[in-house]
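Bit of a strange request maybe. I'm writing a small parser for structure token strings and I need a real example to test against, not something I typed by hand. Could someone generate the tokens for this chain?
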Amino acid sequence: MSRPQEPHRPFLPFGNPFKFILPKGSYLSPKLLALLNAFEESLTERVKSLKPGGKEDILTLSWMTQAISTLCLIHTDVKTLITELELPVCDWDEKWIDVYLDNSVKLLDICIAFSSDISRLNQGHLYLQCGLHNLDGTSNQFMKARSSFDGWKQHINSKNPRLENCFAILDSLTESLNLPKIKNSAKGKVLMRAMYGVRVVTVFILSMFAVTFSGSTKELKDLQIHETCLWTEAFVDVRDFISQEIRSIYSSGRITALKELEVVDTSVKKLYPLIQNGVDPNEAEQLQLLTSNLTEKAEKLSGGLDLLAKEADRFFHILLTGRDSLLYNLRIDSTVSNPAEVNNNVERKEVR
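Reply from user aminoacidic:
Good idea to test on real output. This should exercise your parser:
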């Protein structure tokens, strides 16, 4: 992968792209080539949809919700591909199963960590509601409002220990991106090539989320990928655009890359000095304007977090049902092939 300051090499300027994608000497039937081509073209369009319309749209709650929704579509696409390949679990190499089960557990752990942080941010809305409720004009109520806003600041700036584990998990997923080599299965080669693309995009999006929630770019890395995939050009474009903007956001001194949270924090900072020593009658109109503004921004933040939580939960269930389906098929296959060993085989697979 070329460095950001260097021009990217031309992307597949001529010839058959599949000779770059597959090992020398590999043969795929026209049907398999068509399936792989259709999947990678679809993945390219999914990746392109991740690029925000402008810098102001990067890492907004609406973008994050769309990104998770795109992940759901991508993981559904690969399930459809598996069905179209007519590649039953009994024909899967044991290495593939190891990788899939191991990765699914790690992705589920990341989803749980993200959901807990979304809940943490949403709980901060209660402090804002209490603070806004107490802005009725008396000095005693202003004191309560200040206390609530102080509580909000402390709550928002608190750290979620589960996020620290996410970075270690993402590092592990990144290190294992290169899947086992496929020797004698044409369908297996197509599946592994598709799974590689799914895993790259998944790790990238979840890494962006982890950096956003943690409030730090120290773990922001440019994901290394093969430059022979049909979706590479689109991915590099999105990766560079978003990574550069995140670095710019944090270098400017902002507390978070999440736009809606930053807007609310700015509104609180404007309102707080006004109520610190009581409000002068001449400032009543300004107080009303600032209160209305904070109310609007707080509701937008809370609503956006709710939508993101729903999509994160949907992605979690897609991962979980995929894992459950594989384990179910392993049980069926084990029962058919050797009923006496079914219990041992299932236990061995489930702990991976």
